[in-house]
Design brief:
CATH architecture of the domain at 416-531: Sandwich
Number of helices: 7
CATH superfamily of the domain at 416-531: Cadherins
Largest sheet: 4 strands, mixed
Distance between the termini: 124 Å
Strand content: 25-35%
């Protein structure tokens, strides 16, 4: 209630209320100043109202006191329920977490006034989730109440309740659902499903063949279940194992080829170990497991086996056909010991020098061998089971051809030996050596001498240097080229083989016209001329004739080339163009004799207009349409066109190419328009031709034919 100090309770004062909510939520008794609320108030919407009050004189309507301002606060009552705005909740916590581990926190809100009373003071409690979880009453923090194993249960549903008024009777409440998932940790070792595995592998299986699979189960998931497999206690090192990272299986592979006849059964121990180990759980035991794998080798039909993969044999060259080189042996390793058939793999491009006995493997020659042609021969021998021809094995046979002294020594090259005419006696003119295709174990040693029949009469002597070389010396002084140009010396060369072989090699000595030094070119030239029987003057004459003929031939070729370069026309080639002459002029009718000068068409001098080739097609089409309507005196036009065409054909100043000249004389823009009825879509009966009478005397007859008002006698 508001009351003025000047209020005498005589009803002379009037109280007025203004401000927030005045008239809508609050009213004032104008006589005593009491304020009343006329609607229900909601503190959560507006917690206070600011109002102004004034007392005025009813008679004068003037204020008796200054206006006063006051605030009306809305006192809170517990009329709102708590709310979980972020629910439902999902949380994750590692399995086997210790008691008291924080999982997550839930928070509820209450719209009531937290500063007045207990309307907004909340209390949290656990409705569902015992005995695994607990919640702090004031904070809403959910904690682990015991250790839990994910492999037993991996998800829990917890219900949290929030009450206002600190849980007192009459309090409002709300609930929230919390889904708690247990994440995995590596707390379980791998365990093999079987303590003993049985597998088998064929002895024909190649290296890398999968023998079988083993699997150790791990209750954990993800990386915690990842494991590696190892093979233990396998001294033979025949098998290997790899891990399939997708299925976590161990795949046993064949590392070496097995042989049923050598070993028929293997026993290996396989171990599975976790790849990632949590040290917190090592005290519970090793995170690994072992199992036994027994592998049986299955028998298969094996190919024959040679006693050696590579054979080395020797044979002397030059032996008779059918000489024994050696013997290869192969057998069937299987129990039935099938007979074996031998053969040689021959190349299509090589000569067949060997054959083999298919029953006993004896290799013989088919013709004598020459070491100087080939000192080694490589053969491939196959052994095939007679009962199963698909079973084939191979062996390499290397045949060395041993040398015998069957080749005499000889000159390594053709020597060119020259001697001057004035050479003195005892002068060395050549040094010679020898080569031998045979192979000497002690090294080659050659002996040089002059043939006995020529030793006394020869003009030259041979001196053996005892180092596989010899010198050729002159025996006399002075040689006459005119008497003899060439001397042929028979040189005997003997090797140190068993038995020794001797060969006779001819050394040609050419006499040269020189003093001290031999001009090799001039000497060869002189010898060549001497052999032809020509003198120097004759040879010069022959060469001069050849030179003259060559110059004459080159001159003819040059003249012909010059003629080919000259152009076929004396004048420059004109550019290819169509010549189009177009005349467009509008006539004034039959009586118009001044609009167009017809004499211009009769002149022989017409200017040709050259237009680009790209516009010719469209212009020809336009001219063709115009040429269909030829005006009066068309005979003159045809005569003019014929003259122009003849002029173009006989013009000597242009190349003889086709020329297109089009002439059309049709005016455009006539007011009469087209008289054709081809484009009309109506019949003659539907059209009116009365307008023809207005076209003048030239159309009088036509107007009479089509006019609708015809007179008798028209």
């Amino acid at each position: 209630q508001l009351k003025s100090d000047l209020d005498k309770h005589d009803g002379n004062l009037e109280y007025i209320l203004t401000g927030e909510g005045a008239g809508s939520f609050f009213v004032i008794n104008e006589y005593n100043g009491k304020i009343y609320v006329i609607q229900k108030l909601d503190r959560e919407k507006k917690p206070f109202y600011t109002l102004r009050a004034q007392a005025i004189n009813r008679s004068t309507r003037l204020p008796v006191e200054p206006e006063s301002e006051f605030i009306i606060k809305v006192r809170d009552v517990n009329d709102n329920e708590p709310q979980f705005l972020d629910g439902p909740y999902v949380a994750t916590v590692p399995e086997m977490s210790p008691e008291g581990t924080s999982v997550t926190q839930v928070t509820a809100t209450d719209a009531d006034d937290p500063s007045y009373g207990n309307s907004a003071r909340l209390l949290y409690s656990l409705i569902q989730g015992q005995p695994y979880f607990s919640v702090e009453p004031k904070t809403g923090v959910i904690r682990m109440a015991s250790q839990m194993d994910r492999e037993t249960k991996d998800q829990y549903l917890v219900i949290i309740q929030a009450k206002d008024m600190l849980g007192q009777p009459g309090a409002f409440s709300a609930t929230a659902t919390v889904t708690i998932n247990l994440s995995d940790i590596n707390d379980n070792p791998p365990k093999f499903e079987q303590r003993l595995y049985y597998m088998s592998v064929s002895e024909e299986a190649p290296v890398g063949t999968s023998v079988g699979k083993v699997f150790a189960e791990d209750s954990d998931i993800g990386d915690n279940a990842a494991m590696n497999y190892f093979i233990e206690e396998d001294s033979s090192d025949v098998f290997d194992i790899i891990t399939n990272n997708e299925t976590q299986e161990g795949i046993i592979l064949l590392k070496k080829q097995v042989d049923y006849e050598s070993k028929r059964r293997y026993s290996i121990q396989v171990k599975a170990v976790n790849r990632y180990i949590d040290e917190r759980f090592l005290k519970e035991g090793p995170f690994e497991d072992t199992t036994i794998v027994k592998i049986n080798v299955e028998d298969a039909d094996d190919p024959p086996v040679f006693t050696s993969e590579n054979y080395v044999m020797e044979i002397i060259e030059g032996g008779v056909t059918g000489a024994l080189v050696g013997v290869v042996t192969a057998r069937d390793p299987d129990a039935d010991n099938s007979p074996v058939r031998y053969s040689i793999v021959h190349s299509m491009h090589l000569k067949r020098l060997f054959s083999i006995n298919e029953h006993n493997g004896a290799i013989i020659t088919t013709e004598p061998l020459d070491r100087e042609i080939a000192s080694w021969h490589n053969l491939t021998v196959t052994a095939t089971e007679t009962k199963n021809p698909e079973k084939i094995s191979e062996a390499n046979v290397y045949v060395q051809v041993l040398d015998v002294n069957d080749n005499a020594p000889e000159f390594p090259k053709n020597y060119e030996t020259f001697v001057c005419e004035n050479a003195a006696s005892g002068q060395q003119i050549q040094s010679i050596s020898a080569v031998d295709q045979d192979d000497s174990a002690e090294g080659h040693h050659f002996y040089f001498s002059l043939a006995q029949e020529d030793a006394n009469s020869s003009h030259f002597t041979v001196k053996d240097n005892q180092d596989n070389t010899a010198g050729i010396f002159t025996r006399i002084s002075g040689f006459r080229r005119q008497e003899q140009v060439f001397f042929y010396l028979p040189i005997l060369i003997q090797d140190n083989g068993t038995p020794p072989l001797t060969s006779t090699n001819t050394l040609t000595v050419t006499v040269c016209d020189c003093d001290t030094e031999v001009n090799t070119f001039y000497c060869r030239y002189g010898a060549f001329m001497y052999s032809l029987g020509l003198s120097t003057e004759a040879l010069v004459a022959v060469l001069a004739c050849i030179l003259i003929l060559l110059v004459f031939f080159l001159a003819i070729v040059a003249i012909r080339q010059q003629q080919k370069k000259q152009p076929p026309f004396s004048e420059k080639m004109e550019e290819f163009r169509e010549n189009i002459v177009s005349y467009d002029d509008e006539g004034g009718g039959e009586e118009d004799t001044e609009a167009f000068d017809i004499s211009a068409l009769r002149t022989r001098t017409v200017m040709r207009t050259h237009k680009p080739r790209k516009k010719v097609a469209s212009e020809i089409q336009s001219l063709y349409r115009q040429s269909l309507q030829v005006g009066p005196d068309s005979t003159i036009f045809r005569q003019f066109i014929s003259e122009k065409l003849e002029e173009a054909n006989t013009d000597p100043s242009v190349p003889p190419y086709d020329s297109l000249q089009t002439y059309a004389f049709e005016g455009t823009g006539s007011l009469a328009g087209s008289l054709s009825s081809l484009g009309s879509n109506t019949s003659d009966m539907d059209q009116s031709y009365d307008y023809l009478a207005d076209w003048g005397p030239h159309f009088k007859q036509l107007a009479g034919m089509y006019s609708s008002h015809r007179t008798v006698g028209d």
